C-alpha cells in the first residue's frame, strides 16, 4: 500500500489552490477616495432593473459573481456613470476613473470599442466615421445583447433614417427584446418626423433671466433660426461654437438668429460658465429638460439645425464648414 507523504499533500494543496484561483469569478473594483460611502448598483439591461447593490467602503475591493451561460449585458452604476460589462468567466477589472471593465475577451472588446469612439471624438472625427465604427461593432456582436451597445452609438451618430433601419433589420431577437429598443424605435420615429423638409415642432423654455422663449418667436419675426442643441461638458459641442460665431456675426443683420438649447446638463452653473468662457452672445433656452431632444429624435449632440421663417426644417446635423454652406445661399441677395 502506497503512503501519501506530507510533501505530496502540500503539492496537492498548491494544485487545488491554483485551480481555485483560476476558477475564481470576481470583479476587482477600484474607486477614487471621494466615492467612499457611495452606492454601487448592478443594473440588468435586459430586464431594465437594478439587481444588486453595495456600498463603497474602500478604494479597492472584490465582488464575486456567477458567470452566465448566455451573454448577458449588465451595467455598473455609480452616480451618473454607467459602465457596460458582461459577467464572463474570469477576473474582471473595473476602473471607475476610466469607466471601463477589462480582463476577459468580451469586456475587452466592449472597452476597446467605447475607448475608440471617445478617442475619435477627441480627434474631431465626423459623424460618418463614428457611425461606421459603431456599425462595425454592432455587426460583430449582432447575435448577442452586446450588439445593442453598437446600435445605441450608431443612432447617436446618424441623421439618416435609412442606414439605421438597415442595421435594425439585422439585429437578432435577443437585441430587439431589450427594453431600450422601444426607446430607440421611438427616437427613430421622431427623427423621421423632423427630417429636412418637414415642419418644425415648437417647444418652450426660459433664458437665464427667467423669460420664456421658443423657436417660434424668432420665426414669427421672419428670421431663419440656427438651433444648437448642446451641453457644456460636450467637447464636440464646444468645438462648433467658433463656426456658429462666424456665421452669426456675418448674417445676424440680414435675418439670421441663433438659439442655443441646453440639454442633458447636470448643473445650470456649468452651462452659464461655459457660455461665458466661450463668449456666446446669442440667447440660450435652458430648461427644456429632455422634451427638445425627444421631439427631434436627438440621440447625440452637438445637433445643429436650420429652420426657415415658414417653419420648414432646412437642414439638420450641421457642423463647422457646413453651417455656412447651408446659410450663405439664403442671404446672397440680401
Q: What does the model show?
A:
This protein is α+β, with helices and mostly antiparallel strands and 334 residues long. It has three domains: 26-103, no CATH class; 111-193; 198-333, 3-Layer(aba) Sandwich (Glutaredoxin), CATH 3.40.30.10. The chain is built from twelve helices and 15 strands. The protein has helices at 6-22, 105-122, 127-140, 147-156, 161-168, 173-176, 180-193, 215-220, 235-251, 268-278, 291-295, 321-327, and strands spanning 26-30, 39-44, 49-55, 60-64, 74-78, 81-85, 91-95, 100-102, 204-206, 212-214, 224-230, 256-262, 284-285, 303-307, 313-315. The strands form four sheets. It has a five-stranded mixed beta sheet with strand order 13-12-11-14-15. Strands 4-1-7-8 form a four-stranded mixed beta sheet. Strands 3-2-5-6 form a four-stranded antiparallel beta sheet. The protein is globular and about 70 Å long. The protein starts with 5 loop residues before the first helix and ends in a 7-residue tail after the last helix. Mean pLDDT is 87; it is low at 1-23.
